[in-house]
Design a protein that fits this description.
This protein has 80 residues and is of the alpha+beta class.
Length: 80
């Protein structure tokens, strides 16, 4: 991951953008402190699918529609 000061970024913005287009992340610093990152855009749909694949490995899939056998009064305001 590259690091670049704000002053240098101003002078070399197009080079920084080309670097990001190649898939690299650039940390932007101000007075030696990282204040931002330039990152390539992600494919949101693909990222969501990948996260669901990971979750599906540990998820328990069951019937979420059928009654559970317990009576539940949604209108009951008693918290006890």
């Amino acid at each position: 991951m590259n690091t670049i000061p704000v002053s240098e970024l101003r002078a070399n913005l197009m080079n920084a953008i080309k670097e990001v287009e190649r898939g690299n992340v650039i940390k932007i610093t101000s007075r030696g402190k990282v204040v931002a990152k330039l990152v390539p855009p992600g494919n949101i749909k693909e990222e969501a699918k990948n996260k669901l694949k990971v979750i599906s490995k540990s998820a328990i899939i069951g019937d979420i529609i059928s009654p559970i056998g317990s009576k539940w009064d949604a209108l009951n305001n008693d918290n006890g």
